[in-house]
Amino acid sequence: MFDYLIVGAGFAGSVLAERLASVADKKVLIIDQRDHIAGNAYDYYNKDGILIHKYGPHIFHTNAKRVFDYLGQFTQWRPYEHRVLASVDGQLVPIPINLTTINTLYNLNLDCSQLEAFFESKAEKKDKILTSEDVVVSKVGKELYEKFFKYYTRKQWDLDPSELDASVTARVPTRTNKDDRYFTDTFQAMPLHGYTKMFQKMLSHPNIKIMLNTDYREIIDVIPYKFLIYTGPIDSFFNYCYGRLPYRSLEFKFETLDTEVFQATGTVNYPNEHAYTRITEFKYLTGQKHPKTSIVYEYPKAEGDPYYPIPRPENAEIYKKYQQLANAMTNTYFTGRLATYKYYNMDQVVAQSLALFDKISQQQSEKHVNGEKVFQTT
Question: Where does the UDP-galactopyranose mutase C-terminal domain start and stop, copy by copy (predicted)?
Fold first, then answer.
């Protein structure tokens, strides 16, 4: 008898497995249909000995000290601040848009105070910010919106920004200084030996058993357990009874090149002229020294592994129906990007699972009845 059966060995499931095993002394079985742990953060050494991220670049950043300190139990950190250039008008310029971006594109020599006025002159004020297009156009105007966001967003989501929730482009701010870091979070670092090593340590507790290459439906009626934690797609769990929740997927094209450095920074975005959205060079992220380098091209697509929940009002309505079914279940918990249909960063998933562990700890108290441990929801 396992106390917890956890479906999915990515961040959402692994954090809960570790907390339940090490803090609450519960017996946990964590299963995954893939042949590895670590979910989409899985990394490995390719045949040339270069550490790459199988499911595209994963760059850790957070403002949550609790999350950073928690993961720091399982890895040393390598400080790393990610920088991104965008290929626009035949030039590579910083994104998010900053002072350097504008001065380079327009051949100007503005200072920070003048840049504010420049953006004001371009901005088209909106009464209500409802869509991703509204977010950008209201800050920097149509021209910059089209150069940097419109076509990139179309490629990424197969939707015009006017059809997407404001939260999508709000993730990429506009700056009035020369700060060219992609993120401004307090804690920016990468696991020193990679994500997979971090997950291996996280799941090394003797109370945790792992089953890979396993669909939970194959074993759920065979292996006894008391509580279920599900981190997969919520619509799949309920057999798509309200229809499928749409996701965007990605196709990755990896190349190893016989050169030490391929591009000027970790990631270069291609908003306009190519079918791919960006190219990432892994050695920037990992800090690895190697005579060769490995890069990945990202091609957004509709079918494939579900990566990005599509933030549109009609999708939120479908999710609410599934959420009501989930809330009505006893002894079952849903967490993670897929199970809650939210476009979360890694640190947000960790925070969500830590919060769920806190909730479970409060809800469940052990009683001894007839010499047996039982769990009672309080």
Answer: 147-343
